[in-house]
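call fold(seq) -> tokens
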Amino acid sequence: MAKITIIGAGGYVFPLRLVGDILSLPALQSSTITLMDIDAGRLEGTASAARDLVAHYGFPATIEATTDRRAALDGAGYVIVTFQVGGLEAYAHDVQIPRRYGLDQTVGDTLGPGGVFRFLRSAPALTDIASDMAEVCPDALLINYANPMAMNCWFLSSLGVKTVGLCHSVQGTSHMLARQLGVPDDEITFRVAGINHQAWFTEFRRGDEDLLPRLRETMTRRHLGRAAGGTLAADDGDHSGMRDDNVYEGGSERVRTEIMDAFGFFHTESSHHASEYLPYFRKDADRVEDFIPQRWDYFEVCSAKATGDPNGDLLARLKEDLRPSVEYGARIVHAMETGSPTVIYGNVPNHGLIANLPPGCCVEVACLVDRNGIQPVAYGALPPQCAAVNRTNVNVQELAVLAAQTGDREHVYHAVMLDPLTGALLTLEQIRSLVDELFAAEEQWLPQFAPEAAGYGVADRTAVAAG
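ret:
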């Protein structure tokens, strides 16, 4: 069996969940799973739990653990990236500094100042991984789970790494919408395309029945308090969301329903997180409370989980019932190793896949997977208003990736200036000051912008568009 390497394996719960997914598939139970992290203590926590799981079931799998990245990559067929460079210390700067300027990011890992700087911290590590892979596992597939998904994957693809980015927002949202309509998951078919955290359900069907009209009516009545024609409607009390090992969907979906009401289609990220990507929902505290009455702060969630045994509860559940989660990672490995085809939603370069999004940007589309690897399916053109919403986010991604490629600090300012929410709240002078503060606070993780590193990662400026 191929060697599967997880970089960032000391993370909270998720790396062990991936190990469980791999081991839940009989064809992968003799795999070599190599766990790598720079934090030896956290790494050992995951490795110990993984070995315990293997021993519990008597699988022939081999679990390796190392802090040596190059050794972990040597001979790998699959490289799974799950890290957050700088950990909670850096993440605190991502969210707390913008809040001093009145910019409240509920997560801050995908767009905005938080997403841009999380990506810029990741770029040197991604560059080093790409360099090592070119030498010790040039044919390996890199499966990226680290946010910001689109920026990371765009950058990795520009480095020549065979990359697919995975998220659970498509499958999570499809389950939630099926429940909202009272339709079994296994009777639903759908078509989705766009960018990560902002892909659009342009089809949602049960057999021959088009469910989009009923979806619009149901979500408008439940979450906007009015009937489809605009009249007020009684709230029927069903604000169900989705929550399992890996998926959080907010109970109130007013933000996403407002977006659907305005632009015609439902998209793939929870209302809490989606509110960061557009200029309409977080202009002031009263508006935030109106649209998102139950605050959910991901930095606080992560901080609360930073102590204790992160894997204990999950390990106990996996010992009782070992079955795959909603994540696509293990399914990809299984399909490529066995030839048994599967369809996933992946984040890949836009080489003719979505006609009205920029060439080379990172898009999220359906992909066939078998022994031939990841084979994205061309979608065509999105509804023009949906593509236009996506392009406001792609603008930020493009400038951030260009900044990482060239070490040009000015493009970091440009990226944050183009962020829809930041631009709605702050002046250009305030944005420049905010970015300066983030540079100062996170200097230790940003070697590509140090004066002595002029030219770090320099690439032809057309490389971003080329993907």
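The longest helix spans residues 112-136.
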